[in-house]
Amino acid sequence: MRIATYNVEWFDSLFDKNGRPLLDMAWSGRRDVRRREQLDALSDVFNALDADAVMVVEAPDTSRRRDTVKALEQFADFAGIRARAVTMGFVNDTQQEIALLYDPLVLRATHDPLGTPEGVGQNETPPAFNSVYHLDLDTDMTGDPVTFSKPPLELAMQVRQTGFSFRMIGVHVKSKAPHGARNRDDEIRISIENRRKQRAQCIWLRQRVEQHLVENEPLIVLGDFNDGPGLDEYEKLFGRSGLEIVIGEGNGGAPEDQRLFDPHARMAMAPRASAAPTSSRFFIHQENRYLSALLDYIMVSKDLAPLGKWRIWHPFDDRACYENVALREALLLASDHFPVTLDLDIETS
To answer: What is the pTM assigned to this prediction?
Structure first.
């Protein structure tokens, strides 16, 4: 079984209000890319992945005038992929939803959020991800309100033919970038505040992860974490990266059997002399160059780790992607992130 996570930049801008793909040559949200070009590139990438399930990060918007499910279903029809069913969770206000595209002949996927629902009093245990969680983040014995701008997507998954069940959590954790900073002091202030919020979201997510691990439930946590060890100079103020918190690594980490595993994350957490993979590539206008970073992960519980084979579909670092010129160009046109896949050696039929 193949599971993928894919952050598609400006996916929402590729559909009209009825969820139909905009197959024209108007500019997409991506720099110097036309809408038809991006849609064709995405079609090529999704077909190359041929995944049983794809966690789509920055999926098309749901609002009064737009519908994530309708848009993704029509994209699947346009692309001709077998992952044509859609499940999503709590709607957010950012025009970047989290949704799962999956093959309905292989899998069942049900939105199954845990925790106290939104607006139901104070919470002493992790509430539902669309709620407010009061966490003591600065040791003043007072709970600070924490929210997700993009609530994680919690899914109960089952392989149709065999009945094998597992849990899946799709994630898009807050960015730490100091957007809107007017000067260096502003940049420092916003960066520290964003990291504080990002760390709080990761603590909340880790607590939910532990709920599943204690119950010995097979678990996959995947998506865009906007984080990794050593990505910015403010990390030392907080001791651990958000990624390490979710996995259960680092100072004050979890016992070995309560940790999640992702080989790319493990490489990133190794001494800095080690070569680390990357899953994204951003153009820095002020410096006229590209910046690469590892932001996208598929983490699994200890029982699934021995069954998995991970791959980042990087157009330059993955040899097969590089040598396939059409796929290489499609990956570069489709998004500023590249897909990550996990092939699990479990029976699906």
So the answer is: 0.93
